[in-house]
Amino acid sequence: MTAILRVEVTGSQCEALLDTGASRSFISPGAVERLQLKAWKLPEECVFTVANGAQLRIDRVVKGLTMWCGATRLAGDFLVGPVPYDLVVGLDWLTNHRVAWYFQSDKLRTYVNGQWCDLPVVRANDVTQRNGSTQGTRQRTPAEQAYDILAKQVADMTREEATALLRPPSQRYNPPSKGKRKAMVAGLILQATESTACIRHPLQGLYVILALP
């Protein structure tokens, strides 16, 4: 699923493509130059395979980029690459900000950093192309379908339900100590040894094996 958001970066209006099919977030070289942003050299070049099978090599990143969408402040790292929009917001950003979203009229409802907020959507569709070109809707992957279902369920939760879901557990599970684990294993071995002493024929042995916990 994709949506176009109108965002503000360093006081300038930009368009951001919100795309669940993108594993990382990107910013175009033109936007970096226009907004006079500082891009850092990556310690290791990143290689991505795009929809047409071509490989995209990226070696720069804009760290901690802050953008405003409506009254909501959002931030993240963006790789510098030849993307068709000023910004492409991918799953890394959605995961870091714990965003759940669904489309309703011209609003994108999100759960960001522990609170509900609405982001104004310019337009939303399964496939968004520039320059008036149109392509058929691509088949969505099972992971994307599962994400959309989960996002819809989270978006429909009340504030009380969301608070209960995010509340940490009252107590943590403590695994048995190393000594206890050794004692349990030793007990099972002893039980198996005693059981084999009673075997009189193969079928009985098979029964004993199946009966072991």
TrEMBL record:
Gene Ontology MF terms: aspartic-type endopeptidase activity
GO biological process: proteolysis
Transmembrane region(s): none
CDD domains: retropepsin_like (cd00303)
Matches recorded under SUPFAM superfamilies: Acid proteases
Name of the protein in its database record: Uncharacterized protein
Record InterPro entries: Aspartic_peptidase_AS (IPR001969), Peptidase_aspartic_dom_sf (IPR021109)
UniProt source species: Eimeria brunetti
Pfam families to which the protein is assigned, alphabetical: Asp_protease_2
